[in-house]
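At this stage, I put together a protein sequence along with its fold in token form, as given directly below:
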Amino acid sequence: MLLLKFSKMRKIIAVAIMIVTFKNAIAQHSFSNSYKLGIHSIFFGTGDLRGLNLSAEYNRKLNNYLTFSPSIHMGYGRKAVGLRAVSSNQRKESGAVNFNLFASPMHFDKNKFRIGIGPSVRYTTGVVRTYVRPNGDIRSGNNLSLGYTLATEGEFNILGTWLVGLGGGYAVL
């Protein structure tokens, strides 16, 4: 009976040591956070309607190769095409929320190259006005889309705490 109790006690002590060791290993691992603000060019539809996109992004470094990156985007595009008899004025606004996971194929301390993918939710509203002489009809459309985004980006560390980056993305919505 004493041997059985000793065996149970050894197991409890071993599990306690493992829990304390695991807790210390997690506590020593530091996550880094960063925030980004961006101004981008945006293309709506087939690309003939272009505009400006503003973004705010939060980055949570999970390890040296993975980063979780939720972001908010607001875009505006406008195109005016016209002749004397027929003219058209198109406008689109959009708001999007992306949840990307970026992978970096190589680890660098100061510079980064990352490839990301994640789900995306986008709300687009727009007005298309077609004028035939003075009178015209107005068509508008609102659209809520679910899809995903693909992105690549590079970051270069300057002055210690500032990053300058270049990136590109494609949303399938």
User: Anything to note?
Assistant: The mean pLDDT is 77. The radius of gyration is 26 Å. Residues 2-28 form the longest helix (27 residues).
